[in-house]
Structures are given as C-alpha cells and as structure tokens.
C-alpha cells in the first residue's frame, strides 16, 4: 500500500519534468549583423564638399581623362548641357571654357580656401510664411580651426517694405562659431541657433554686415514676430582661378548625385 502511495505521489513530478523541454540553441536569432553592400550608384556619389574638392584636384593632377572626370562633376540633368533632344545653350560653351582654363593653368582648389554659401530659410512672420536668405562665409582661425558666420542678410520683401520697425534692438553679445561641416547637414546648427537665441547677432561677427535689412530681421526675431522653420535651399561657392563654381546637393539614386556644379560664374567676364 505504501509503495502504491509513493508511486501516485511521483506521477505529477514526472509529468512536470516532461513539460520542461531542455534548452536548445536558438537558430533563428541573429548573432551578428551582416553589412549590406552599398548600391553601385553610391560609389559615384559626391557625398561631401571635401569629396568634391578631392575629385576636382585629382582630375587636374591626372595626365589623361581629366576632361571626362571634370564633366562628371556637373549636374548631368542640367538642360543647359548638351544632351539628346536638348537645344544648344551658351552655358555649354562656358563649361568648355572653364574646363580648358583650369586644365591649362593646372588650377586646384586649396583645402583651406574661403568658402561661401547662400541658404534659403522658410520663416513664419506674424503667422504668414515667407523666405529669408542668408549669405555665409567659412573662415579659418590662426590655429587652423574653421567656422561659418553670416555676412549678409536678404530680408523678405514685405518686411523691408514695412514702415516702422526701425529701432535698434540690443543684440546679444554671445559669439557662436558654426561648425565647419554645418553645410553637410543643411546648416541645422544655424537653424536651431536662430530659434534658441532669437537673434542673428551671435552668428554675425562683422559689425559692418549689420545693415538695415539685417536690423529689420533682427528686430522681428527678437520681438517674436519671426521664427525660423526649415532650410529649403543651400548653395556652396568655391573659387578656381577666375571662376566661381556654384555647388548644389542633388539627392537621387544615380552616380551623378551629391554635391555637383549647378552653375559657373566667370569673375572677369565683364572685363573681356
């Protein structure tokens, strides 16, 4: 009888042991992340302005094939360039003259050359949308550090036409040096700074740059009538000899993408 009672008592424990399956290696769980190979078009993208400068200078140094390499740095979808079904445009001759000029003179872009930018910022003024344009320059300090700062303000036309709003608000004395790679992130540090400080002053280091247009925008920011929302356009300007190149960022899934030449300005054209 005692043996029967013990056997009955052990049955639940034997069933419980059967329900607990032994641990097994989880074959469905990823133990490591496999890096996806970059798309083929990504190898041709000009991802950074510094990358553009390297490619330009390498093309100038090359003995052969530099003509094609330089042409690849232009926006191939520009209707002013030669292409199937496109009528001839004078811009094509300007591009040819530019390539011949930099090749003949072996003109390269210095790594620490002065760089300029023009950005368009959507703002909301008195509840209405408008556009503010800011001209910036990247300068270098004595210890080789670089920073961006505002050198000119193009105020929204309606703000300029307003009568009044001419008092000079006291500008903050804080000086902010925008990081040298701010252009690679659509000048987001500047956008955030305009809203944090409600002022252009921390980013405008030259007092002579604070003209009437600057003051009107400064007053609107300080009074809260104007707030910056987003950067909608960004153009970079580089100099090569007597030419100024306008660079725009083209975000698309093709090799001819990234920072490319969107326009050319011959600085001494009027003297010829």
Question: What would you say about this model in short?
Answer:
This protein has 272 residues and is α+β, with helices and mostly antiparallel strands. It is 29% helix and 24% strand.
List the helices and strands and how they pair.
Layout: H1 2-19, H2 49-61, H3 66-71, H4 90-105, E1 115-125, E2 128-140, E3 146-154, H5 157-161, H6 188-197, H7 212-223, E4 226-240, E5 243-250, E6 258-266
Antiparallel strand pairs: 1-2, 1-4, 2-3, 4-5, 5-6
Give a written overview of the molecule.
- Helices cover 29% and strands 24% of the residues.
- With 272 residues, the chain is of the alpha+beta class.
- It has 2 domains: 43-107 and 241-271, no CATH class; 115-236, no CATH class.
- The protein has a 6-stranded antiparallel sheet.
- The radius of gyration is 30 Å and the shape is globular.
Report the portion of residues in β strands: 15-25%
Assembly type: single chain
Structural class: alpha+beta
Uncertain segments = 4-11, 16-31
The side-by-side strand order for the widest beta sheet comes to 3-2-1-4-5-6
Classify the helix fraction into a percent range.
25-40%
Total individual domains? 2
Termini separation: 121 Å
Number of helices: 7
């Amino acid at each position: 009888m005692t043996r029967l009672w013990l056997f009955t008592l052990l049955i639940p424990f034997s069933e419980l042991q059967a329900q607990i399956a032994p641990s097994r290696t989880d074959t469905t769980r990823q133990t490591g992340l496999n890096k996806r190979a970059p798309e083929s078009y990504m190898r041709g993208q000009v991802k950074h302005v510094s990358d553009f400068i390297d490619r330009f200078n390498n093309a100038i140094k090359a003995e052969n094939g530099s003509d094609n390499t330089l042409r690849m740095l232009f926006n191939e979808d520009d209707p002013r360039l030669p292409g199937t079904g496109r009528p001839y445009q004078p811009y094509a001759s300007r591009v040819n003259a530019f390539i011949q000029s930099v090749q003949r003179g072996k003109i390269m872009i210095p790594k620490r050359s002065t760089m300029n930018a023009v950005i368009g910022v959507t703002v909301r003024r008195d509840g209405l949308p408008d556009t503010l344009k800011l001209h910036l320059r990247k300068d270098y300090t004595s210890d080789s550090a670089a920073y961006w700062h505002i050198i000119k303000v193009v105020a929204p036309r309606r703000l300029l036409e307003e009568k009044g709003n001419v008092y000079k608000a006291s500008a903050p004395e804080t000086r902010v040096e925008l990081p040298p790679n701010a252009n690679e992130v659509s000048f987001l540090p500047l956008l955030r700074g305009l809203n944090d400080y409600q002022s252009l002053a921390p980013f405008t280091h030259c007092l002579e740059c604070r003209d009437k247009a600057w003051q009107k925008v400064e007053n609107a920011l300080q009074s809260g009538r104007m707030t910056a929302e987003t950067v909608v356009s960004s153009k970079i300007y580089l100099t090569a000899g007597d030419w100024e190149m306008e660079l725009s960022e083209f975000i698309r899934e093709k090799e001819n993408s990234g920072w490319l030449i969107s326009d050319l300005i011959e600085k001494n054209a009027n003297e010829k």
